[in-house]
Design brief:
The complex is a heterodimer of chains A (220) and B (216). With 220 residues, chain A is mainly alpha-helical. Chain A has a single domain, classed as MetI-like (MetI-like fold, Orthogonal Bundle). In chain A, helix 4 crosses helix 6, helix 6 packs antiparallel against helix 8 and helix 7 runs antiparallel to helix 8. The longest helix of chain A is centred in the first third of the chain and has 35 residues. Chain B is elongated. Classes of the chains: A mainly alpha (220), B mainly alpha (216). Chains A and B meet through helix 2, helix 3, helix 7 and helix 8 of A and helix 2, helix 3, helix 6, helix 7 and helix 8 of B. Chain B: GO terms for molecular function: transmembrane transporter activity. Chain B: Pfam families: BPD_transp_1.
Chain lengths: 220, 216
Protein backbone atom coordinates (compact mmCIF):
# COMPACT_ATOMS: atom_id res chain seq x y z
CA UNK A 1 0.00 0.00 0.00
CA UNK A 2 1.05 3.56 -0.60
CA UNK A 3 0.88 6.22 2.08
CA UNK A 4 1.68 9.56 0.56
CA UNK A 5 0.20 11.39 3.54
CA UNK A 6 3.18 10.22 5.62
CA UNK A 7 5.29 12.67 3.65
CA UNK A 8 3.25 15.73 4.57
CA UNK A 9 5.02 16.35 7.87
CA UNK A 10 8.33 16.46 6.00
CA UNK A 11 7.23 19.08 3.49
CA UNK A 12 9.69 21.64 4.89
CA UNK A 13 12.55 19.15 4.35
CA UNK A 14 11.55 18.77 0.71
CA UNK A 15 11.14 22.52 0.30
CA UNK A 16 14.58 23.37 1.67
CA UNK A 17 16.08 20.66 -0.57
CA UNK A 18 14.24 22.12 -3.52
CA UNK A 19 15.60 25.55 -2.64
CA UNK A 20 19.20 24.29 -2.62
CA UNK A 21 18.72 22.54 -5.96
CA UNK A 22 17.19 25.66 -7.53
CA UNK A 23 19.90 27.94 -6.14
CA UNK A 24 22.70 25.72 -7.39
CA UNK A 25 21.00 25.35 -10.77
CA UNK A 26 20.60 29.09 -11.31
CA UNK A 27 24.16 29.81 -10.19
CA UNK A 28 25.82 27.07 -12.20
CA UNK A 29 23.72 27.78 -15.29
CA UNK A 30 24.99 31.36 -15.34
CA UNK A 31 28.60 30.47 -14.52
CA UNK A 32 28.64 27.46 -16.83
CA UNK A 33 27.31 29.37 -19.83
CA UNK A 34 29.80 32.19 -19.22
CA UNK A 35 32.63 29.65 -19.02
CA UNK A 36 31.33 27.94 -22.14
CA UNK A 37 31.14 31.24 -24.02
CA UNK A 38 34.72 32.13 -23.16
CA UNK A 39 36.01 28.66 -24.05
CA UNK A 40 34.01 28.52 -27.29
CA UNK A 41 35.37 31.92 -28.35
CA UNK A 42 38.91 30.76 -27.63
CA UNK A 43 38.26 27.47 -29.41
CA UNK A 44 36.92 29.26 -32.49
CA UNK A 45 39.13 32.34 -32.75
CA UNK A 46 42.11 31.71 -30.46
CA UNK A 47 45.59 30.57 -31.43
CA UNK A 48 46.40 26.92 -31.92
CA UNK A 49 47.84 26.27 -28.45
CA UNK A 50 44.83 27.70 -26.61
CA UNK A 51 42.49 25.83 -28.96
CA UNK A 52 44.26 22.63 -28.01
CA UNK A 53 43.88 23.36 -24.29
CA UNK A 54 40.15 23.97 -24.65
CA UNK A 55 39.70 20.78 -26.71
CA UNK A 56 41.44 18.70 -24.07
CA UNK A 57 39.23 20.21 -21.34
CA UNK A 58 36.04 19.60 -23.33
CA UNK A 59 36.90 16.03 -24.29
CA UNK A 60 38.04 15.10 -20.77
CA UNK A 61 34.81 16.32 -19.22
CA UNK A 62 32.49 15.02 -21.91
CA UNK A 63 33.95 11.51 -21.74
CA UNK A 64 33.93 10.95 -17.98
CA UNK A 65 30.91 10.54 -15.68
CA UNK A 66 29.83 13.54 -13.61
CA UNK A 67 29.95 11.54 -10.37
CA UNK A 68 33.64 10.74 -10.94
CA UNK A 69 34.38 14.42 -11.65
CA UNK A 70 32.58 15.31 -8.44
CA UNK A 71 34.48 12.73 -6.38
CA UNK A 72 37.74 13.85 -7.93
CA UNK A 73 37.08 17.46 -6.96
CA UNK A 74 35.66 16.72 -3.51
CA UNK A 75 37.94 13.85 -2.39
CA UNK A 76 40.90 14.18 -4.73
CA UNK A 77 41.71 17.89 -4.59
CA UNK A 78 41.99 18.10 -0.76
CA UNK A 79 44.73 15.47 -1.04
CA UNK A 80 46.83 18.00 -2.92
CA UNK A 81 45.93 20.80 -0.55
CA UNK A 82 42.68 22.30 -1.88
CA UNK A 83 40.04 22.01 0.81
CA UNK A 84 36.51 22.50 -0.47
CA UNK A 85 33.15 22.37 1.27
CA UNK A 86 30.60 20.01 -0.30
CA UNK A 87 28.66 22.98 -1.61
CA UNK A 88 31.73 24.58 -3.19
CA UNK A 89 32.87 21.28 -4.67
CA UNK A 90 29.49 20.63 -6.28
CA UNK A 91 29.24 24.17 -7.60
CA UNK A 92 32.67 23.87 -9.21
CA UNK A 93 31.92 20.41 -10.60
CA UNK A 94 28.57 21.47 -12.06
CA UNK A 95 30.04 24.63 -13.59
CA UNK A 96 32.97 22.77 -15.14
CA UNK A 97 30.61 20.11 -16.46
CA UNK A 98 28.13 22.54 -18.01
CA UNK A 99 31.04 24.66 -19.25
CA UNK A 100 32.42 21.78 -21.32
CA UNK A 101 29.09 20.86 -22.89
CA UNK A 102 28.13 24.46 -23.58
CA UNK A 103 31.54 25.12 -25.16
CA UNK A 104 30.76 22.48 -27.74
CA UNK A 105 27.24 23.82 -28.32
CA UNK A 106 28.17 27.51 -28.47
CA UNK A 107 31.07 26.78 -30.80
CA UNK A 108 28.62 25.28 -33.27
CA UNK A 109 26.71 28.57 -33.09
CA UNK A 110 29.87 30.63 -33.66
CA UNK A 111 30.82 28.41 -36.60
CA UNK A 112 27.44 29.04 -38.20
CA UNK A 113 28.08 32.78 -38.57
CA UNK A 114 29.13 33.39 -42.16
CA UNK A 115 32.60 34.77 -42.72
CA UNK A 116 31.19 37.64 -44.76
CA UNK A 117 29.57 39.15 -41.68
CA UNK A 118 32.86 39.18 -39.80
CA UNK A 119 34.62 40.72 -42.80
CA UNK A 120 31.86 43.31 -43.16
CA UNK A 121 32.26 44.24 -39.49
CA UNK A 122 35.98 44.67 -40.04
CA UNK A 123 35.37 46.91 -43.05
CA UNK A 124 33.02 49.03 -40.96
CA UNK A 125 35.87 49.57 -38.52
CA UNK A 126 34.62 47.43 -35.61
CA UNK A 127 37.39 45.90 -33.53
CA UNK A 128 37.35 42.24 -32.53
CA UNK A 129 35.52 42.76 -29.23
CA UNK A 130 32.85 44.89 -30.88
CA UNK A 131 32.44 42.35 -33.66
CA UNK A 132 31.93 39.61 -31.10
CA UNK A 133 29.39 41.42 -28.93
CA UNK A 134 27.49 43.30 -31.64
CA UNK A 135 27.66 41.06 -34.69
CA UNK A 136 28.39 37.47 -33.74
CA UNK A 137 26.98 36.60 -30.32
CA UNK A 138 23.28 37.35 -30.71
CA UNK A 139 22.60 35.36 -33.90
CA UNK A 140 25.00 32.62 -32.77
CA UNK A 141 23.18 32.19 -29.45
CA UNK A 142 19.80 32.37 -31.13
CA UNK A 143 20.73 29.43 -33.32
CA UNK A 144 21.87 27.16 -30.50
CA UNK A 145 19.49 28.42 -27.80
CA UNK A 146 17.28 25.29 -27.72
CA UNK A 147 20.28 22.94 -27.49
CA UNK A 148 21.91 25.09 -24.82
CA UNK A 149 18.82 25.28 -22.64
CA UNK A 150 18.15 21.55 -22.81
CA UNK A 151 21.75 20.97 -21.75
CA UNK A 152 21.17 23.26 -18.76
CA UNK A 153 18.15 21.15 -17.81
CA UNK A 154 20.21 17.96 -18.16
CA UNK A 155 22.81 19.43 -15.80
CA UNK A 156 20.05 20.38 -13.34
CA UNK A 157 18.87 16.74 -13.34
CA UNK A 158 22.47 15.56 -13.05
CA UNK A 159 22.84 17.67 -9.93
CA UNK A 160 20.92 14.95 -8.04
CA UNK A 161 24.31 13.25 -7.69
CA UNK A 162 25.67 15.97 -5.38
CA UNK A 163 23.58 14.46 -2.57
CA UNK A 164 26.30 11.79 -2.50
CA UNK A 165 28.79 14.26 -1.02
CA UNK A 166 26.10 15.36 1.45
CA UNK A 167 24.97 18.58 -0.14
CA UNK A 168 21.44 18.98 1.19
CA UNK A 169 19.63 19.15 -2.12
CA UNK A 170 16.31 17.64 -3.17
CA UNK A 171 17.71 14.11 -3.49
CA UNK A 172 19.31 14.40 -0.06
CA UNK A 173 15.89 15.36 1.30
CA UNK A 174 14.35 12.27 -0.31
CA UNK A 175 17.02 10.02 1.23
CA UNK A 176 16.56 11.65 4.61
CA UNK A 177 12.79 11.27 4.60
CA UNK A 178 12.86 7.64 3.48
CA UNK A 179 15.40 6.81 6.17
CA UNK A 180 13.05 8.32 8.76
CA UNK A 181 9.74 6.78 7.79
CA UNK A 182 10.76 3.91 5.42
CA UNK A 183 8.36 5.17 2.77
CA UNK A 184 10.98 4.77 0.03
CA UNK A 185 8.68 4.51 -2.95
CA UNK A 186 6.50 7.44 -1.94
CA UNK A 187 9.46 9.62 -1.05
CA UNK A 188 11.37 9.01 -4.28
CA UNK A 189 8.21 9.19 -6.37
CA UNK A 190 7.30 12.62 -5.02
CA UNK A 191 10.89 13.78 -5.47
CA UNK A 192 10.94 12.53 -9.05
CA UNK A 193 7.74 14.49 -9.68
CA UNK A 194 9.31 17.59 -8.13
CA UNK A 195 12.29 17.23 -10.49
CA UNK A 196 9.90 16.75 -13.40
CA UNK A 197 8.02 19.90 -12.41
CA UNK A 198 11.30 21.76 -12.07
CA UNK A 199 12.46 20.71 -15.53
CA UNK A 200 9.14 21.71 -17.11
CA UNK A 201 9.25 25.03 -15.25
CA UNK A 202 12.82 25.63 -16.37
CA UNK A 203 11.86 24.98 -19.97
CA UNK A 204 9.06 27.55 -19.72
CA UNK A 205 11.42 30.06 -18.11
CA UNK A 206 14.03 29.53 -20.82
CA UNK A 207 11.41 29.95 -23.54
CA UNK A 208 10.17 33.19 -22.01
CA UNK A 209 13.74 34.43 -21.63
CA UNK A 210 14.50 33.46 -25.23
CA UNK A 211 11.54 35.48 -26.49
CA UNK A 212 12.91 38.53 -24.69
CA UNK A 213 16.55 38.00 -25.66
CA UNK A 214 15.78 37.52 -29.32
CA UNK A 215 12.92 40.00 -29.47
CA UNK A 216 14.58 41.91 -32.32
CA UNK A 217 13.34 39.16 -34.64
CA UNK A 218 9.73 40.03 -34.03
CA UNK A 219 10.20 43.75 -34.58
CA UNK A 220 11.68 43.62 -38.06
CA UNK B 1 45.66 -4.17 7.32
CA UNK B 2 46.23 -5.01 3.68
CA UNK B 3 48.67 -2.91 1.72
CA UNK B 4 47.55 -2.00 -1.78
CA UNK B 5 50.30 -1.68 -4.34
CA UNK B 6 49.73 0.23 -7.55
CA UNK B 7 49.40 -3.11 -9.27
CA UNK B 8 46.62 -4.17 -6.87
CA UNK B 9 44.75 -0.94 -7.45
CA UNK B 10 44.98 -1.26 -11.20
CA UNK B 11 44.02 -4.92 -11.15
CA UNK B 12 40.92 -4.24 -9.07
CA UNK B 13 39.92 -1.32 -11.27
CA UNK B 14 40.35 -3.44 -14.39
CA UNK B 15 38.22 -6.15 -12.87
CA UNK B 16 35.50 -3.60 -12.11
CA UNK B 17 35.72 -2.21 -15.63
CA UNK B 18 34.38 -5.52 -16.91
CA UNK B 19 31.19 -4.93 -14.93
CA UNK B 20 30.88 -1.39 -16.21
CA UNK B 21 31.17 -2.68 -19.77
CA UNK B 22 28.72 -5.50 -19.14
CA UNK B 23 26.19 -3.15 -17.56
CA UNK B 24 26.60 -0.67 -20.42
CA UNK B 25 26.01 -3.41 -22.99
CA UNK B 26 22.97 -4.75 -21.15
CA UNK B 27 21.51 -1.26 -20.80
CA UNK B 28 22.22 -0.40 -24.41
CA UNK B 29 20.65 -3.60 -25.74
CA UNK B 30 17.65 -3.22 -23.43
CA UNK B 31 17.29 0.45 -24.29
CA UNK B 32 17.50 -0.19 -28.02
CA UNK B 33 14.84 -2.89 -27.83
CA UNK B 34 12.41 -0.73 -25.86
CA UNK B 35 13.16 2.30 -28.05
CA UNK B 36 12.44 0.28 -31.22
CA UNK B 37 9.08 -0.74 -29.80
CA UNK B 38 8.26 2.83 -28.80
CA UNK B 39 9.35 4.17 -32.21
CA UNK B 40 7.06 1.65 -33.90
CA UNK B 41 4.22 2.78 -31.61
CA UNK B 42 4.89 6.37 -32.52
CA UNK B 43 4.93 5.66 -36.25
CA UNK B 44 1.49 4.02 -36.20
CA UNK B 45 0.00 7.55 -36.14
CA UNK B 46 -2.50 6.41 -33.56
CA UNK B 47 -3.01 9.44 -31.27
CA UNK B 48 -3.32 7.37 -28.09
CA UNK B 49 -0.09 5.49 -28.83
CA UNK B 50 1.72 8.70 -29.66
CA UNK B 51 0.56 10.24 -26.42
CA UNK B 52 1.86 7.27 -24.44
CA UNK B 53 5.28 7.63 -26.07
CA UNK B 54 5.30 11.39 -25.42
CA UNK B 55 4.50 10.94 -21.74
CA UNK B 56 7.11 8.18 -21.45
CA UNK B 57 9.82 10.38 -22.95
CA UNK B 58 8.82 13.38 -20.83
CA UNK B 59 8.80 11.28 -17.68
CA UNK B 60 12.20 9.65 -18.12
CA UNK B 61 13.96 12.63 -19.68
CA UNK B 62 12.54 15.02 -17.11
CA UNK B 63 13.63 13.15 -13.98
CA UNK B 64 17.17 12.40 -12.80
CA UNK B 65 18.59 8.98 -13.62
CA UNK B 66 19.63 8.70 -9.98
CA UNK B 67 16.01 9.12 -8.88
CA UNK B 68 14.90 6.44 -11.35
CA UNK B 69 17.50 4.11 -9.87
CA UNK B 70 16.37 4.81 -6.32
CA UNK B 71 12.76 4.20 -7.33
CA UNK B 72 13.69 0.91 -9.04
CA UNK B 73 15.91 -0.28 -6.23
CA UNK B 74 14.52 0.99 -2.92
CA UNK B 75 11.05 1.86 -4.15
CA UNK B 76 10.20 -1.45 -5.79
CA UNK B 77 11.52 -3.52 -2.92
CA UNK B 78 9.45 -1.48 -0.47
CA UNK B 79 6.44 -2.31 -2.63
CA UNK B 80 7.27 -5.99 -2.24
CA UNK B 81 9.13 -6.71 -5.48
CA UNK B 82 12.56 -8.05 -4.56
CA UNK B 83 15.09 -6.65 -6.99
CA UNK B 84 18.88 -6.87 -6.95
CA UNK B 85 21.14 -3.86 -7.49
CA UNK B 86 22.09 -5.38 -10.83
CA UNK B 87 18.43 -5.73 -11.85
CA UNK B 88 17.54 -2.24 -10.69
CA UNK B 89 20.51 -0.76 -12.54
CA UNK B 90 19.62 -2.51 -15.80
CA UNK B 91 15.95 -1.61 -15.46
CA UNK B 92 16.53 2.09 -14.81
CA UNK B 93 19.28 2.43 -17.40
CA UNK B 94 17.02 0.74 -19.96
CA UNK B 95 14.23 3.21 -19.24
CA UNK B 96 16.64 6.15 -19.39
CA UNK B 97 18.38 4.97 -22.59
CA UNK B 98 15.18 4.21 -24.43
CA UNK B 99 13.62 7.60 -23.61
CA UNK B 100 16.59 9.39 -25.19
CA UNK B 101 16.96 7.02 -28.15
CA UNK B 102 13.27 7.42 -29.09
CA UNK B 103 13.78 11.17 -29.29
CA UNK B 104 17.01 10.84 -31.28
CA UNK B 105 15.43 8.44 -33.74
CA UNK B 106 12.33 10.59 -34.04
CA UNK B 107 14.53 13.40 -35.30
CA UNK B 108 16.19 11.04 -37.80
CA UNK B 109 12.92 9.69 -39.19
CA UNK B 110 11.45 13.19 -39.40
CA UNK B 111 14.32 14.37 -41.62
CA UNK B 112 13.04 12.05 -44.36
CA UNK B 113 10.62 13.87 -46.64
CA UNK B 114 6.97 13.05 -46.04
CA UNK B 115 6.50 12.53 -49.76
CA UNK B 116 8.26 9.19 -49.42
CA UNK B 117 5.47 7.84 -47.22
CA UNK B 118 2.89 9.12 -49.70
CA UNK B 119 4.76 7.72 -52.69
CA UNK B 120 5.00 4.29 -51.06
CA UNK B 121 1.30 4.45 -50.34
CA UNK B 122 0.64 5.17 -54.04
CA UNK B 123 2.81 2.22 -55.01
CA UNK B 124 0.59 0.02 -52.89
CA UNK B 125 3.12 -0.74 -50.15
CA UNK B 126 1.70 -1.53 -46.74
CA UNK B 127 2.81 0.30 -43.59
CA UNK B 128 5.29 -2.42 -42.65
CA UNK B 129 6.63 -2.71 -46.19
CA UNK B 130 7.19 1.06 -46.35
CA UNK B 131 9.02 0.91 -43.05
CA UNK B 132 11.11 -2.10 -44.03
CA UNK B 133 12.08 -1.11 -47.57
CA UNK B 134 11.88 2.69 -47.72
CA UNK B 135 12.14 4.39 -44.35
CA UNK B 136 14.41 2.22 -42.20
CA UNK B 137 17.33 1.81 -44.65
CA UNK B 138 17.60 5.61 -44.91
CA UNK B 139 16.84 6.36 -41.26
CA UNK B 140 19.46 3.90 -40.02
CA UNK B 141 22.15 5.70 -42.00
CA UNK B 142 21.20 9.01 -40.39
CA UNK B 143 20.72 7.52 -36.93
CA UNK B 144 24.00 5.62 -36.53
CA UNK B 145 26.21 8.59 -35.61
CA UNK B 146 23.96 10.07 -32.87
CA UNK B 147 23.21 6.58 -31.50
CA UNK B 148 26.90 5.79 -31.14
CA UNK B 149 27.32 9.23 -29.59
CA UNK B 150 24.60 8.47 -27.09
CA UNK B 151 26.23 5.19 -26.07
CA UNK B 152 28.82 7.40 -24.32
CA UNK B 153 26.00 8.75 -22.15
CA UNK B 154 24.98 5.19 -21.31
CA UNK B 155 28.49 4.26 -20.17
CA UNK B 156 28.63 7.41 -18.04
CA UNK B 157 25.16 6.63 -16.71
CA UNK B 158 26.33 3.27 -15.37
CA UNK B 159 28.54 5.17 -12.91
CA UNK B 160 25.38 6.03 -10.97
CA UNK B 161 24.76 2.33 -10.29
CA UNK B 162 27.56 2.64 -7.72
CA UNK B 163 25.17 4.68 -5.57
CA UNK B 164 22.73 1.78 -5.18
CA UNK B 165 25.62 -0.53 -4.33
CA UNK B 166 26.30 -2.21 -7.64
CA UNK B 167 30.02 -2.94 -7.72
CA UNK B 168 31.34 -1.38 -10.93
CA UNK B 169 34.19 0.97 -11.72
CA UNK B 170 33.09 3.96 -9.66
CA UNK B 171 32.10 1.80 -6.68
CA UNK B 172 35.44 -0.01 -6.68
CA UNK B 173 37.08 3.42 -6.94
CA UNK B 174 35.34 4.63 -3.77
CA UNK B 175 36.05 1.31 -2.02
CA UNK B 176 39.74 1.48 -2.90
CA UNK B 177 39.78 5.09 -1.78
CA UNK B 178 38.40 4.07 1.61
CA UNK B 179 41.10 1.43 1.92
CA UNK B 180 44.10 3.39 0.68
CA UNK B 181 43.28 7.07 1.37
CA UNK B 182 44.76 8.06 -1.97
CA UNK B 183 41.78 9.77 -3.55
CA UNK B 184 43.75 11.85 -6.03
CA UNK B 185 45.46 8.87 -7.62
CA UNK B 186 42.44 6.60 -7.57
CA UNK B 187 39.88 8.99 -8.98
CA UNK B 188 42.36 10.08 -11.65
CA UNK B 189 42.72 6.43 -12.67
CA UNK B 190 38.96 5.87 -12.58
CA UNK B 191 38.37 8.96 -14.74
CA UNK B 192 41.08 7.82 -17.16
CA UNK B 193 39.52 4.38 -17.55
CA UNK B 194 36.12 5.94 -18.28
CA UNK B 195 37.83 8.24 -20.74
CA UNK B 196 39.47 5.32 -22.51
CA UNK B 197 36.08 3.61 -22.79
CA UNK B 198 34.18 6.68 -23.98
CA UNK B 199 36.61 8.65 -26.10
CA UNK B 200 36.93 6.08 -28.92
CA UNK B 201 33.14 5.99 -29.16
CA UNK B 202 33.01 9.80 -29.30
CA UNK B 203 35.62 9.82 -32.05
CA UNK B 204 33.83 7.09 -33.97
CA UNK B 205 30.56 9.00 -33.73
CA UNK B 206 32.23 12.14 -35.07
CA UNK B 207 33.79 10.13 -37.87
CA UNK B 208 30.42 8.64 -38.84
CA UNK B 209 28.86 12.09 -38.82
CA UNK B 210 31.49 13.40 -41.22
CA UNK B 211 31.11 10.40 -43.48
CA UNK B 212 27.36 10.88 -43.63
CA UNK B 213 27.66 14.58 -44.35
CA UNK B 214 29.99 13.89 -47.27
CA UNK B 215 27.55 11.54 -48.93
CA UNK B 216 24.79 14.10 -48.59
Amino acid sequence: MLYFSDLLQYSDVFLSGLKTTVELTVLTTILGVVLGTVCATVRQYGNRASQRVVSVYVELIRNTPFIVQLFFIFFGLPAIGMMLSPWEASMIALTINLGAYSTEIIRAGLASISKGQIEAAKVLGLNFRQTLTRVIFVPAFEKIYPALTSQCIIVMLGSAVISQISVQDLTYAANLVQSRNFRAFESYFVTALLYLGLSILLRFAFNALGKRLFAYRASN
Amino acid sequence: MIEFSNYDILRNLMFATQWTILLSLAAFIGGTTVALTLTAMRLTRNPAMQRIVRVYVELFQGTPLLMQMFLCFFGLSMLGYEISAWGAAILSLTLFTSAFLVEIWRGCIDTLPKGQWEASRCLGLSFLQTLRHIILPQAIRVATAPTVGFSVQVIKGTALASVIGFVELTKVGTMLNNATFEPFKIFTLVALIYFMLCYPLSLYSKHLEKKFNVSR
